């Protein structure tokens, strides 16, 4: 399977609590719901399309707890997002989670990068990470991510967990696709290319 990191982000890379003020208040976060004013039909079309190839989901502990609390209540059989999240295999990377009631879920309690590398060897199309910014960033640093899919809202949140924190691991990326919704959300799809390249600007060199 290919490992896909799919994130809803602000312009300052915050991934925490996009859906509501109560979604994720951990670490005293009080600015949740920043994505909601920017949702529109084109946003939903893009996100639903990104789910077409998913065969399994991978979460960190906090995101898993939030999803497992909310998504089982969204059981409309005509909702393609809910149907996939509730029905497909789920994996959660956690050293502290004793049991997982959101079926079908498997707890990965060992070395997360090693276990994810093993999962990638299994047959299937895409293993998708939704939210779980710290897990996504760590697997990007480990060279395990095949594609980044980012929905970036035109808002600066100013605090909260970020996908790209200060002193995070550097990464080079190649833009594969880019489009903008009527509400101003940019959908950006990247392929990791290893470490970034660096250079020195020389005036007139590109004229």
Kindly summarize this structure in a few lines.
This protein has 207 residues and is of the alpha/beta class.
Distance N to C terminus: 44 Å
What's the CATH first level? Alpha Beta
Q: Could you tell me the mean pLDDT?
A: 94
Order of helices and strands: EHEHHEEHEHEEE
The CATH architecture can be named as 3-Layer(aba) Sandwich
| Major β-sheet strand ordering | 4-3-2-5-1-6-8-7
**Share of helix, binned:** 10-25%
Number of beta strands:
8
Would you kindly provide a written description of the structure presented here, covering whatever features stand out?
By secondary structure, the chain is of the alpha/beta class. The chain is 22% helix and 25% strand. It has one domain: Dihydrofolate Reductase, subunit A. The chain has helices spanning 41-50, 61-70, 80-87, 112-120, 133-141, and strands at residues 2-9, 54-60, 90-93, 105-108, 126-130, 147-152, 172-180, 186-194. Strands 4-3-2-5-1-6-8-7 form an eight-stranded mixed sheet, sandwiched between helices.
């Amino acid at each position: 399977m290919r490992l896909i990191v799919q994130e809803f982000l602000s312009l300052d890379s915050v991934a925490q609590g996009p859906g509501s003020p109560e979604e994720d208040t951990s670490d005293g976060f009080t600015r949740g719901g920043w994505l909601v004013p920017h949702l529109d039909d084109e946003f939903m079309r893009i996100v639903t399309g990104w789910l077409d190839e998913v065969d399994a989901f991978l979460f960190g502990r906090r995101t898993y707890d939030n999803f497992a609390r909310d998504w089982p209540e969204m059981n409309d059989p005509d909702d393609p997002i809910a149907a996939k999240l509730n029905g497909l295999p789920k994996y959660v990377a956690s050293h502290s989670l004793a049991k997982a009631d959101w079926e079908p879920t498997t707890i990965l309690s060992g070395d997360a990068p090693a276990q994810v590398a093993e999962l990638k060897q299994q047959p299937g199309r895409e293993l998708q990470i939704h939210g779980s910014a710290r897990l996504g960033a760590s697997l990007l640093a480990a060279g395990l991510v095949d594609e980044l899919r980012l929905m970036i809202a035109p808002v600066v949140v100013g605090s909260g967990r970020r996908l790209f924190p200060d002193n995070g691991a550097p990464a080079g990326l190649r833009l594969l696709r880019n489009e903008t919704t009527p509400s101003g959300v940019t959908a950006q799809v990247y392929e990791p290319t290893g470490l970034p390249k660096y250079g020195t600007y020389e005036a007139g060199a590109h004229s």
